[in-house]
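Service request form, structural biology core

Requester: graduate student, group of Dr. S.
Request type: structure prediction, single chain
Budget code: on file
Notes: please return the result as structure tokens.

Sequence provided:
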Amino acid sequence: MSDKNKIAGAAGIIYLLVIVTGIFSLAYVPLQLIDWNNAGTTFSNISRSTGLFSLGIFSSVVCYVAFIFLPLVLYRLLHTVHAQLACVMVILALLSVPLSLINLQHKFAALSIVEAAGHLKDGFSAELQNQLMFELQQYNNGLLLATVFWGLWLFPLGMLAYRSGFMPKLLGILLMAGCTGYLINFTGNTLIEDYKQTAIRKFAGLLPSIAEISTCIWLLVAGLKTKKV
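Core staff response, request fulfilled:
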């Protein structure tokens, strides 16, 4: 059990890095800088805080690179439970990485618009503001597509956790529910007008957060329980 605990601890540390950098880049930075109802305010905020905006991009890169290693370490932990299912988990997780990294081009484009505007007399023109909001919206659209795979990989991970015998079955259930939450929000945002205003969006969004944070905590705690010889 000692080796499993060490692997679990390593997975927990990587998962923690993914969660912290993800929260910073996907939640904190947009909350500070972006007002979707006011292009002028958003342009002004990013112009005054290009360092924070750039740090958000850097944090995203760290998050996605760390996410490459997370399913690989979890594969080492869980492949003896069901090898084929563990392979599916890895494939689904890794498919999200190139999508997420390529999507960051829209944030770089948004940053370029703001930086270039600083050299123009009409730097805060409506046209530039609209271009900025367009790039940010395209980034959000790409992010929505990536959430499909952020959700799908949780289902085989949940099944492996449930069947493992050394991870709590409740974690497995939560992870599979987290997959459902991601897919519900993708479907709703894609097909239903004004879906963002519905209560189910917030509930579905909580499911993966609860599942992934709980899994991260369990892995970290398990890593601290390495038996002494």
